Amino acid sequence: MTTQEIWDAYLEGYAEILAAVGRTGRRLNRDELESRRALGEHAAEAGHGLRALVIGHLAATRSSWPDTTAPDRVLAAVQQAVDAFAEGYERAQRLAVRKEEAARREFIDDLLHGRGEAGRMAQRAERFGLRLAHAHAVGVAVGSEAYDDTHPVTRRVDAALFARFGDRRILLTTKDDRLICIAPGDQEEVVRYFAKQAYAVTEGTGRAAIGRPHPGPGGVVRSYEEALNALKLADRMQLHEPVLYAADLLVYPVLTRDREAMADLVRSALGPLREARGGAEPLLETLHAYFDAGCVSAQAARRLSLSVRALTYRLERIHQLTGADPTDPQHRFMLQTAAIGARLLDWPKKDL
């Protein structure tokens, strides 16, 4: 359609309204205002620009100016007509945005929960910049506040990603108060940058985790679940790294795959610590600090705010109670595995 044809289609009845106002000096009535709103909605739905249509109103006003003794009333009518047209246009745009947001949210929920037929999901994903036939990696960030799509952290991370990578088929969204980034699996620098930015903008109060890349529509779900599990595991294991990588934590699910065997190891290796004065917790915490420090006594003592002599006494007490020496490489692996199991199973707070 030419510009004139567009103007003619969306200014239907406008000249007649001006003529009537010129004769009577009246304001636009309810039906006339509603007809302008309806035309504005139709123009927005058809994708025409508001600026060009406002110019069309002004051009039609000039060409259809009526013979009148009340030019101020005609100008007031022009103002009413343009305002009603713009109101309808903006109303249609808001509705379109809400529909788009609802469709996007529904797609994200289906994608992260693995719902929907694979072919249909792939078609929907194209609309949001993803190619599900390829591998994808997912990053998940949490903070001290709940994140949504309008949160300042979300906007700042989005701006940082766009400034650094432009349009690389990246999907940034939120779910369950978390910030989520889905990126092509062969572009790990994207999710790594996302994780660092999500941590940085919270000034150290947040944490992020990155799942491994996996192919296909189910790959997004799998990577997302790995990232979530990494965050849960970090809380349970008291891991303090700001950015966690699921690939680095694979040993922990392996250790808990046979829960009964792990519980038996914890009871057998560490159960005697309950006989210590003050219970098992202080000595178990000593083991955690010792192993986390790479079995360096001075560093472990600093972590526990103890002297090296006091730490050595505790290690000797563990040896006496369990029969296993934490400083002996032959015993160390068993004790460290049992200590990890205790964290995973929340022992001794929970009975095994």
Automatic annotation (TrEMBL):
Quote the InterPro entries the UniProt record gives: CdaR-like_regulators, CdaR_GGDEF, PucR_C-HTH_dom, PucR_C-HTH_sf
Q: Which residues form the PucR C-terminal helix-turn-helix domain?
A: 283-338
Gene3D superfamilies linked to this entry: PucR C-terminal helix-turn-helix domain (1.10.10.2840)
Record-annotated CdaR GGDEF-like domain positions? 114-233
The superkingdom of the source organism is: Bacteria
Q: Which family does it belong to?
A: Belongs to the CdaR family.
Q: What is this protein called?
A: Helix-turn-helix domain-containing protein
